[in-house]
Every structure is written in C-alpha cells, then in structure tokens.
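Re: export button greyed out
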Amino acid sequence: MFKDKKLTTASGLPVPSDQASLTTGAKEGYTLLADAHLTEKLAHFNRERIPERVVHAKGAGAHGVFEVTNDLSAYCCADFLSTIGKQTEVFVRFSTVGGERGSADSERDPRGFAVRFYTEEGNYDLVGNNTPVFFIRDAIKFPDFIHTQKRNPQTNLKDADMFWDFLSLTPESMHQVTILFSDRGTPLDFRHMNGYGSHTFMWYNSKKEYVWVKYHFKTDQKNKTMDAQMAEAMKAKDSDHATRDLFDAIERGDYPIWSVYVQIMTSKQAKDYPFDPFDVTKVWYQSDYPLIPLGKMTLNKNPENYFEETEQVAFAPSNLVRGIGWSPDKLLQGRLFAYHDAHLYRLGTNHQQIPINMSKHKAKTYQRDGSMSIGGNQGKEPNYWPNSIEGQPKPDASFSPPQIEVQAILARHERPSEDIDFIQPGELYRRVMNEQDKEHLINNIASHLINAKHKIQMRQCALFYKTDKDYGSRIAKALALDLDEVKRLSLLSQEERVNETS
Ligand code: HEM
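Workaround output, generated via the alternate export path:
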C-alpha cells in the first residue's frame, strides 16, 4: 500500500532510512551531526507545541452547515440570512473553560460554543457559551476571574479559597454561579447542550434601522445533563468522553442539529426594560421577548486533522458581517480586542492565512509580509491605500453599521452589585428549578465551598441568602454555618459585608 509513496524530509528529499541514525558502528557508535534527517526530525518534534488557549484550551470541533428557516431580513441585512433555505458552511468548536488541554470533558465548568459562519461577505464568528449569562460584566475583571479558576501560584493546585473569595467579592456572578453549580454545569456531552451568544448584539437592515438581539441554539438531541456522581464517574472512565461522543456520532452519520432562535428588542424597548439589556449577567425573559426561529445548524463532517483545524481555528467576536454589530455591553467591548490579540500570540501575525481561518471570499488587504506569510503575499499588487491604480480594493461605505448617538461621561464607572442582580438568580432557583435540581445545586455548592475558609463561606452564603432565603438557609445548614449570622450579613451592604468578613 505504501508502494508509490516516498518518505522525504520536510524539504522533499527522499529519506533512505527512518529507523537508523547515521552512526559509526553497527552496535555502539557516534552519531553524526551531518544526519540532517535526524536533526530535522528531533528539532521539529521540539517545536510541536504552540501555546494552548489561555482559556477554553480543551475542545472538540466539527464542520457543518447553517440553513435559514425563517426570513428575518426585515431586521438584518446579513447576506447569509437573506433567504429561507440559504445554506452557509460553519465550523464549530466546543470546549471547557478553565482546564488545560488534557483536562476532563466532564469538569464542572461552562462549555464554550463557538460558531464560525463562512459567509460570502466574510467570516462571522459567534463565540458563545452553553449559558445565557456570564460571571462578570466588565472586561477589566476577566484576567483576575480566570486566575481564580486556574491553579494557585504556589501549590499549582485548584484552590477553593481563590475561587470563592473572588466570587463572594463579585456578587453580580450569582446568576452564573447558580447555573454552574446546578447540573447544567455538567452537560452530558457537547451534542446534548444548548448554546447562547450570551451578549446582546445589534442587527440592522438595509435601511440602517437597528434592533438588539440575543441568540439561542437549542439542541435537537435534547438538553441532557449529568449529576455530580455521574460526572465524577465519567471523569474516571473516559476523560475525553464528549470529544469522543461528537466524533463518533458524526462518523456514523448521526449528525447533531441545533435549532437557532433569536430574541429581538427594539431600541425603545431597551430603554424601558427593567433589566439592563446590555448586562451579560442578565437574561431577557422569554415571556417578554419570545424566541423567534431563525435557522438550523447541522454538524456533518469531522476535521481531517485536529491540530490543523480545531487547534488552529481562531474565533474572534470582532469578526462581524454586514447586518450585525456589537452593542454597548462592556464585557463584549473588551472581547472585541482580546481574541485577535490572543491569536497574534498563539498563532502569529498571519493566522488568517491558515486554511481554517481563511474567508471563503478572498481577503484583500493592504497588509503585507510578517512571519509565515503564505499564499503569494498578494503578489505584485500595491501595498498602500489610497492609491489611484485601476482595479484595486476600495473601502465600501455601505458596509458601515448605523450611526449611534452617544452621550458620555468619561470615567472609570464602578458598578457595584445592586439588589437587581439577585432577582434573576432568585427566580431561577424558585421558579425554574424543581426539588431535585435544588437538592443537587445545594450539594454541589456545599461540597466545593466547604474547602474554602470559614469567613469566605459566610460571605458567599450571605449572597445565596440574599438571592433566596431557602437557597441560603439550605447551604448554611449543609455547611453547618450560623444561620442568624448569615441572615445578618445578607442585610449589610456589600462593602460592610466585606469589611466584616475580611
Ligand atoms: C476563548 C478572552 C469572555 C467564550 C477565549 C480566549 C481569550 C478569551 C483570550 C482564547 C482565544 C484563543 O486563543 O483563540 C475573553 C475575555 C472575556 C471573555 C477577555 C471577557 C472580557 C467570554 C464570554 C464568552 C466567551 C462572555 C461566552 C459568552 C469563549 C469561547 C472561547 C473563548 C467559546 C473558545 C473559542 C474557541 O473554541 O477557540 N476568550 N473571553 N468568552 N472564549 Fe472568551
């Protein structure tokens, strides 16, 4: 079967042997530096690793297709959404967040849900999670937040004190914490979970009229979760179970499908909504803004090569196509910078030239050169703009989003947590969770929080109590905390509470 294939060096030179180095003897011997095949092989091996993603390092990807099922072109002029039945190729990467590349797929963690649409007007990346909200709402908090989910700088161990210290000092995290410690924090696998754009985005039509939207990807496979025991058992049995499940399902033709919906809010409605519609710690209630069908996403092809495609794919929330823009969500604003910068570090200046990152319609820029420029470097075409040379790429003003009037006070606007931050997690606990969900939530939190210092337990438990009396009381009981003291702390301002528990 290998008859016609010659093994070569990376420069294409046929290799006489790949089993023996060039040495001075049949048994012992000295190895010659002149063995360029050996030195190339060893040197390349030493350089096989690129930096893993600083977050979302462990993941699995697949190719597929997105098909429009409902005409929402009155709201959005994105070409790929223009007509019912229009299909667009996608690449999707699912991931866990805090663990390293070798960590277990069953860890309690949000799951990344990043979708790239290879549209005819360029790549559109929707870099979401399996949860509709997030822990923080200002990008400046992100590096600290992530540090607390990673390893202690001294012990190199995961650290419950770091974890809960930060969260108890960041009460706006309560909504996401409540989701994370429910069984939704351990989805069965990648196929059986929903995805969310989480942030609020702008949609605009050809008349430059705009609305605000949130994306929902509902799994047609049914949303399924694991309880803590199942997740622990899965970790012991197969730490790559979700990666395996996705690959195997696609190999056998059992293609996973997600029905895609949007919620739509006008700018007038946004002004009147009781919750800040741009605060990513909040949802828009579906009773206020129902899900409107948009399309269907099917994953139908595994990557040929994991590193080439899944490891090198570079999603960026700043990759937006005509018809779609960002919103004044401060967390999203920070993300518009962070990803491209991460790719410059992780993959290099010309990472958009890696096939998985290339746009279907050929990118035409005046950028040139840089490390690993491949594909011709745009040949003899001019490398500056403006130029007066016939046929050269020009900016097109029709691609600008609507103008937005901004009245601003420039300052570092601290946004301490307010009572409104506790309403949605409280409703989630009371109205959405059944008794078994609550029991799992309490046990999952207690078995983790018990490893933190007593004062941190008290501070955090006061936040649970503030969210819902039953929620806080049950955690206090599970941790044998003084409930009267928890109640008293819950009535203090966050500043007073922190002073008393520091
Ligand atoms: C990955 C930063 C919030 C979803 C990443 C990466 C960075 C980053 C640097 C690694 C990118 C790479 O190397 O390719 C940030 C910052 C955030 C933030 C600074 C807040 C200010 C969020 C939120 C979500 C999210 C709110 C979801 C709603 C993801 C996903 C990935 C990722 C899914 C993995 C993408 C992939 O599969 O390659 N983030 N992130 N991030 N982030 Fe964020």
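The chain is about 30% helix and 15% strand. The button fix ships in the next patch.
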